[in-house]
Design a protein that fits this description.
Strands 3-2-4-5-7-6 form a six-stranded parallel sheet, sandwiched between helices. The chain has a six-stranded parallel sheet with strand order 15-14-16-17-19-18, sandwiched between helices. By secondary structure, it is of the alpha/beta class.
Amino acid sequence: MTSFAPVGAAPSAQPPAEIDGFQLLINALKLNGIDTLFGLPGIPITDLTRKAQAQGMRVISFRHEQNAGNAAAAAGYLTQKPGICLTVSAPGFLNGLSALANATVNCFPMILISGSSEREIVDLQQGDYEEMDQLAVAKPLCKAAYRVLHAQDIGVGIARAIRAALSGRPGGVYLDLPAKLFGQTMDAAAGQASLIKVVDAAPRQLPAPEAVERALALLKNAKRPLILLGKGAAYAQADADIRALVETSGVPYLPMSMAKGLLPDNHVLSASAARSYVLAEADVVLLVGARLNWLLSHGKGKTWGAPQAKQFIQIDISPTEMDSNQPIAAPLVGDIGSCVAALLRGMGSNWPQPSAQWINAVAERRDKNQAKMAETLAQNPSPMNFHSALGAIREVIKANPSAILVNEGANTLDFTRSIVDMYEPRKRLDVGTWGVMGIGMGFAVAAAVVTNKPVIAIEGDSAFGFSGMEVETICRYHLPVCIVVFNNNGVYRGTDVNASGGADVAPTVFVKGARYDKMMEAFGGVGVLASTPAELSAAMHAAIANGLPTLINAVIDETAGTESGRITMLNPQTAKKINSGN
């Protein structure tokens, strides 16, 4: 018997609206102000990238996950928001993992989000597609690692990852999302209510008043004080107070490479050109966002003169960083902005200036070294060498101080750091704490995407090879990136020979006369072959003016360059010779 609903009866209730894991993840990210994703599509995240782009997020797709991860790390450093890198499972995850570890070592906030195989298959090792216990692999290499198994926990997972990446000392975080999570559904209203907007992810940590007084007393009584600025000081974005600290105290300052530009490199108190002198002679050193690691010879050795005659004041948000290599007489534990502000308040308006003898001694050596450098830069050898090429680039940066400089290589890194002045904060990105090559194109893409500023990437030909295929990415997104490849035909230089007399070239030698500029042309960008400083300068000015993706193949003398650049001492063969007295 057929039954009929009474005439005028209300229609049957519609099933409740549902939301899936894809949408919950997108909503959670957008709720927390994250609008850009870096990654490489593939199973199981391809649909995530499509849906995110369709809903207004910017999705920058790379040719290799390591470069996407490096982009996310650089974005985190520049914005103080965690950069997001998306990868597929297992091999894709492993490719992104090196960038995650590098971000953690450098204290860049980044979240690596990877799809993964299902737990029940992984745990029984049943041989799933790209099976790997990714969470276990990631844990030792990042600041924190989490796995989300249920759609209702996506909000919690994103919130915990953001807070871990940003709070205290920033770093890398891994978030593991098994494939079937994306297809899970739940009631839409309940799902939206499960999301969390992170409040005060990086709370200020104020230094203890007695710690501030101790530091001020030490600084006031110093005869030869020095302020050493690290990239942590640049990340803090406390630019005005850091400049005021230097100028109020009257203390010479020495910036580490990524801190260049916090004060202009041509500032009267800059001691960059007198680095060796001030490190050896200073009696009190105030470390602001810098660590006494290998980049500073661990605060030991002949670089530092007589370490027993030095006292250190160190500002760091991590108390365990103190005394890591040298005793810290005045530890200031807290965030850099709060610590610097507290020092400024304590100084007042009548802070005693360092002795004229110390200031004049620093200035004398700085001026002498700058004059010597000017003579070297004025030379115009043929073919170009590092100095003549960088002399041209130095003037381009001076004319375009808001451009972001990305720099990697061995000699290319070392010479650029000492020759090219920076004038604004966070305009220099380089290989950082690990000195790892391959950051170039990822950093360049991120800088262009998140700042909308022109980017100049100064690359050694070897370093460029690590990420060079991303020139296609740069062209695809029409990014204003000008790449300068210093082409001397090899690693360090192109003159090594095969000691066996065999047909193979030496391990450090590349194809002679390689045309890197043609790579950019292949993808629709501008390629330029430059063999003189004038040609290099003209091409760079044109690239900045037109905003087109450009690669300049700067041909330099293949004999230019030294083994390992300025870290020759880390080469085991060199160390063996020195230790044996040869």
